[in-house]
Amino acid sequence: MSGILSDKVSLITGAGSGIGRASAIAFAREGAQVVVSDIDAEGGEETVSRISEIGGQAIFVPADVSRAADVEALVQSTVQQYGRLDCAFNNAGVSGGQDLIHEYSEDDWDRVIDINLKGVWLCLKYEIIQMLEQGGGSIVNTASIMGLVGGSRSPSYGASKHGVVGLTRNAAVQYAQSGIRVNAVCPGYIRTPMTEQGALLGPGNEERIIARHPIGRLGAPEEIAETVVWLCSDAASFVTGHAMTVDGGYVAQ
Ligand SMILES: NC(=O)c1ccc[n+]([C@@H]2O[C@H](COP(=O)([O-])OP(=O)(O)OC[C@H]3O[C@@H](n4cnc5c(N)ncnc54)[C@H](O)[C@@H]3O)[C@@H](O)[C@H]2O)c1
Predict the structure, then answer these.
(1) With a 6 A CB cut-off, is 228 part of the ligand 1 pocket?
(2) Contact by Cβ (8 Å): 33, 82
């Protein structure tokens, strides 16, 4: 398949579901060779099947992004399979508990920060080692509108996503001269298993959440995928250190 990511070797974490799966499919449709990674093997293999069905190229490599050894092995497997790493979408993440700060448990704080923030740092670390060796690349991290504004619940989630925005800017500045671009995508509320399985889109809540988006609806995973494809592609060659909202106007208010 050919498109704006033709022959770009691309690694996507959290690609067994939601935004990551939609992105893996969009990358493959644009010609990328995709490494689908997730902690959930069943979801990851399903994404690979869907890519094969549309004639794309993908393999599944399991990894827990909060474990350094897993992430190092993931980048190694990518290079062993496809010879290099051109694009990475560090997207794996979890929602935190919905408690307020004074009620929040230390265990949940550590779990969310480990996956959402430390996980992105570990991915950046091993991807950048490879990209420095080959002379460049492009990386997108998944932050959130909750990385730009305060949320009424889930303090660890908000802190982790603000951290992802900060880390993105830091990485962009540190590696701009090395040909590595690093950006973040900040989605509004997107209809995925993360929002549908939790209480977030439960009865009564959905209308309240929709009302906070000026556009008057929730987003679809494919709308985030389109943005990430563009940010990773050479079409965005002068864009780095940007935290791009894709949120139906949520933070514009
Ligand atoms: N859905 C939304 O409204 C929304 C809004 C803003 C940001 N986000 C962010 O988008 C990203 C994707 O979320 P989604 O909505 O597609 O959720 P999702 O639950 O559908 O997908 C998340 C994927 O990450 C994987 N994952 C979880 N922990 C992992 C780990 N330790 N290592 C590797 N993989 C792991 C899960 O198995 C799952 O496949 C997350 O970072 C999330 O915080 C989502």
Answers:
(1) no
(2) yes
